Amino acid sequence: MSSVLRAVTLAEWRRWRRSWLRIAVLVLYIGAGAYAIHAGHRDVRRWEAAIANGTQREVRMQDEVRAFYAAAKKGPADRPWVDLSVGLWAEWYTGTYMGMRAQPLALVARGVSDVRGHVVRVNRFTSAFEVGEQVDLGNPEQQVIGALDLVFVLTMLMPLVALTFGFDILSYEREQGIATLVHVQSASLTGWFLARLFVVAVTILLPTLGLWLVGAGVGDAFAQQASAVWQGAGFLTLLVLVWVSLIGMVGAWVRTSATSALTLASLWVAVTLVAPALTNQIVNTRVPVGYASEITNAVQTGQTALFKRTTRELLPAVYEAFPQLRSAPYARFDDAPDSLRKADKDFFPREFAEHMLSRRAMEGVWSREFARERIAEFAQWTSPTMSAHLALTRLAGVDAQSHRAFEQAVVPVVRQKLASLLDGEWNNRKYDLAAYEALAAMVPADARYGGDMATTCWFVLLLWLSTSFVMIIVGLRHSPDTFVRTLRSALNPRTTKVA
Amino acid sequence: MMRAMLRHELRWLFRNRRLQLLGAITALLLIASGFAGDRAVRTAGRERERAVAQARADWVAQGPVNPHNAAHFGSFAFKPVGTLAILDGGIDAFVGNIIRLEAHAQNDAQYAAASQQSVLVRLGSLDPALVLLVLVPLLMIAIGYATIADDRENGRLQVMVVQGVSLPAVFWAKTIALWTLAMCFLAAIGIQTLALASQAGARLDADVLSRVAAMAAVYATWLLSVTLLVTIASAIVRDARAALTGLLFLWIAAAIVAPRIAGRVAADRHPLPTRSAFEAAMREDRTKGLNGHDPEDARVKALESQVLKQYGVKDKKDLPINFDGIAMQKDEEYGDAVWDRHFGALEQQLHAQRADLHAVALVNPLMAVRALSMAIAGTDLSHARQFQHQAETYRRDLIQRLNREQAYGGSKTDDWEWKASASFIAGILDFVYAPPPLSAALAEVKTPIRALAGWTVLMLLAGVVTGTRFRQHT
Amino acid sequence: MLSCQSLTKRYDARVVVDDLTLSVADGEIYGLLGPNGAGKSTTIQLLLGFVAPDAGSRSIEGIDVGRDPAKARKHIGYVPETVALYPWLTGRENLEFFSQLAGHSLTRERAIELLTRVGVTAEAATRRVSEYSKGMRQKVGIAIALAKQARVLLLDEPSSGLDPEAANELSALLRDVARNSVTVLMATHDLFRASEVCDRVGIMRHGRLMMETDVAALTPQALDALYLQHIRRDQ
Q1: What confidence tens digit (pLDDT) does each residue in B433-462 have?
Q2: How far is CA A131 from the centre of its chain?
Q3: In sequence order, what are the residues at sequence separation of 6 or more whose Cβ sits closer than 8 angstroms to the Cβ of residue B37?
Q4: Chain A residues touching residue B121 (CB < 8 angstroms)
Q5: In this structure, which topology does domain C1-75+151-235 adopt according to CATH?
Q6: Do C73 and A184 touch (CB under 8 A)?
Q7: What pTM was estimated for this model as a whole?
Q8: Are chains C and B in touch, 3+ Cβ pairs below 8 Å?
Q9: Is residue A357 part of a domain?
Q10: Chain A contact for B275, CB < 8 A?
Q11: Do B274 and A276 touch (CB under 8 A)?
Q12: Which ipTM value was assigned to this complex?
């Protein structure tokens, strides 16, 4: 076997270095990957800049307010109505932002990071909707074209590169009549065939892993996300093997290189373009996004609550939605102090009600998102490309699940703030510096989300690999003619005899 | 002789097993995508009607209400989904179809479908445009790459020539036959679209019909260019295998790689500001004055003096009208000017990026077709911006009416308990979107039109030249 | 040596090789004659182990081909009618590649020596095979078989398409090879070459071995007459 491998390696090397097409394809592949890393790095810097802007504003505002407290001032001189000793204004001037930091591997994929928000100003009015309103500015005509990111290069272009190097394995030999000589010379045609595939696999794997590791290095992922880096490397190795195996499967069965090229091109189109597009269409049909009625209704309901309803009117709906609140002190309106019952102090209970109702609506939105993802996760069994996309974007923390985790993290923070403010109103608290700092500290530091990988993706690739490998072995043992004859006799045993 | 050749070619095509299999799959995908698109459009239409009715009900249910409270209560503009979105969903998944209309804020379209889906949204959706743009050309490559090369390699071409068939006749018969095949797909989806649209009760008015005709013309031209390219490659490349390899690479480059590279390069050449930088710049202009020396309170004080002088009183409380309404309207107009300036700059960058993408269409006709298809279907950036502009115009009118009612409707300054009547509120009509006519849509895509026309002429000329000169033997 | 015992092969209802029994000793050149469709190529395919017989057995150097075809092929050098090589490799590189597949690594010098022995010059050996004539490819094919140090050489229509000079060179080469105790079986319908180079011939028709004879005792004309007599038997 080793002599076969050496022979094949040397012959392939000689072939490829004389093939300008293959050299060009490899160079373009590496070039596209390098550019994608560079572009992804810029995208992440832009992402981080947005968060840094928020942090800077937060720091500026809080420093200003600390100075007011230190000087025993009520607030800015040009705004005499501001009183920082009152909860309403103390909270407003915390100026807190909550950010979703990019994972170190975020530069490898755009995912949905350009259509979902990363940073949101958190105050008592904030709803989870508002994260969605903080989407970065973008050009939808570019977004619909698709992103040139490293995941695209490694999952969609890599198979095409592999095809270029391996599409005519065995089919060329059969076509040109070399197969017989190869079979006579080598101890086993299967051994020769697998050696060819092995050489192609190594040729594709090296630049693929190289690009991945360079990307990880540029993003400083080795220090901060090492396990994800090696998971990704392992996953990509498996993906390369899947595609090389598929190339081998086709080569083992078809007779001519033209048919092989067309079959592989069709296979690539089917799993890379059609399957995901069809999945998205199915998702849109079964769980349509529509006109975000849950959100718009909730916004208007919230607005109505804020301006039209009294707390007494709102509380039954809130209790119905959240029965546990019946025992919460700040929601028991009837026991509230007189100061809270006055119309102009009705603010916090109404805002609390608005918050709870909007959260309910957002949970409806999230559950529908989750339903869409479930369909996609089920559909990934039909396409290694889809599975790879889901896996790698999750590792990079740019998938929908990661962003949803961030949006969901905003909600309890707002609730905690509201609860504290209501409690403060209830107890007539005066806000000093310590109370202000406590309020500001309720918003946690910016965090990262995602960065792991579901095990399903591994099983998908293993299934594809094992199936195609079995088909290779079966295909090599039976010539295409025998297979067709066997199939015909199986379909119509009366008219066809098999030798 | 040409007719005989054409009949022969068509017969061969439709008996071709590869065509039968691949064609059946492609046709299935095309029809299924048409049905899916139709269902999506109908569902969106029903949802929109419900959303519009709900928004209207919420608005009217305010009853007697302080106009400024109503301005904050606001409403929504819901973008309708055009009939031809059945064929080409365009950018709709990435652009929201709802704009919140409220005082003091100019909002973007929000809640885009892509923001509520998995990452697979990046891999596109199966609509007829994708099939016609990407899959049917691949089918034509698969069927036609050997159309002349095979005859040459097998010696049949020489026999035909000896029989008296001219080379141009061979070339054009094969080209027309292949194009006829492609037209079958186009006709199928065209008939399906019209049938589904009329079944859904859509108004098949002159605009819709002309858009359908324009779409058919664009795709027919595109498929003609592809057909010519395939036949030319088969005629001039040394063997069938090389023709296939070359065509597949061209297809991959044009359909998959080049658009993404072009998009990225355009974004790099004309970068958009981050949202935070954009909003910070707007905030700065609003609070510090457009020219940096006209801060907000000074503007309010100047306005107050002017109004007091106009009415001949010394104190706001003595005014017969509500100064708050006037001040809020001035503030609103100021904010509008700030927004116009910054949003205008943003739009210029978007247009520059678009111009770059359209320029790339000069070398990649697929991008020209994509741009034209979205423009005709009403699902491109121009239409999205049109909707935004119309919604913003409506918003400004709405807020102005409310502010004027606050100012001149009978209340006095500082009287925040005053309410406008329920009939006044109900009398404010909903936003109605008027989509631009086809001519306006096409005016935005002149470069892609030129690119597609140019490529078609080039391919025809190349076909004429090739048809007289290609090799008869290996 | 090689031998076949009652070898039979059918494709659908058609008998392609019918109860074939023959053996070829070491150092012997055996010509398998017959018209197109006689079953000569199928016989070679059976001996190579690429096709399974419906009845009978065959062996190469005492190894049952049916039981262990891979082991049997280790002793076989095969030169098909059209020697197909990788066009982007030179003659030398093709030789090195196919030899290495068989587990015989060749040095550059040894490869050149082999090619020279079969009539491919050192200069030609460095040119790509896409520039070779049919005769040159044939020679590289033989060099591949020689490099393998095969004990049995199977040739399928080796002189087909060769000019007279190349065909003469081939005949001389085969005689040279057989002198090293290599068993040579050559399927051909070129009676002249067969009479020139073979020790024995067998005539096949419709899959049957009609007769075998020593060639030494026959003139070319006599061989012609014998061939025609057996080919036209039913006519």
Answers
A1: 999 999 999 999 999 999 999 999 999 999
A2: 17
A3: B85, B86, B87, B89, B127, B128
A4: 112, 280
A5: Rossmann fold (3.40.50)
A6: yes
A7: 0.88
A8: no
A9: no
A10: yes
A11: no
A12: 0.89
